[in-house]
Amino acid sequence: TTTLTLSANNLHPTVGTDVELTGRLVDSSGKGVPGVTITIEAPDYGTDFLPLLTTTTDGDGRFSATISTWESGSVPVRAMFEGTEKYLASNSNTLMFYASDKKATGSPGTSLN
Predict the structure, then answer these.
(1) Are 59 and 32 within 8 A, CB to CB?
(2) Of 76, 79, 87, 89, which is most buried, counting CB atoms within 10 Å of its CB?
(3) Phi and psi for 63 in degrees, rounded to 5?
(4) Are residues 59 and 53 in contact, defined by beta-carbon separation less than 8 angstroms?
(5) CB-based contact 39:61 (threshold 8 Å)
(6) Is a pLDDT exceeding 60 seen at residue 63?
């Protein structure tokens, strides 16, 4: 079996901001799975996920990818490993981005002075 994890440097970006995703694919003994393709996906308007981009794990099973947020509101993203003859497929946790159209400048009615 394999386990795939996914994290991001910013879960509350402004629309159009780049977000760095990082993760790791490990086997059942906790050893990184090297040199395999990881697909970063976002949902279609139905229940299917569609691929955004692919990346490859390094020698320790780690990977990174950069995406740009394209719409405001909540946007789920996950990573997927299709599996190989040696390793079973797995999906990561789903990250939920909450993108806004404007940069945060404080709560309404408050001053930043």
Answers:
(1) yes
(2) 79
(3) -145, 160
(4) no
(5) no
(6) yes
Q: Is 23 left (phi over 0), alpha (psi -120 to 50) or beta?
A: beta
Cα angle at 22 between 33 and 87, to 5 degrees? 20
> Which amino acid, one-letter code, is at 107?
S
Q: Is a pLDDT exceeding 90 seen at residue 30?
A: yes
16 pLDDT exceeds 50?
A: yes
From the CB of residue 84, how many other CB atoms can be counted at a distance below 10 Å? 13
pLDDT at 90 > cutoff 90 = yes
Beta-carbon contacts of 19 under 8 Å, excluding residues fewer than 6 positions away, are 8, 9, 10, 13, 66, 67, 68, 69, 97
Q: How far is CA 51 from CA 12, 20, 24, 78, 79, in A?
A: 21, 16, 18, 10, 9
**What is the sign of the dihedral through the CA atoms of 18, 24, 41 and 8?**
negative
pLDDT of residue 42: 86
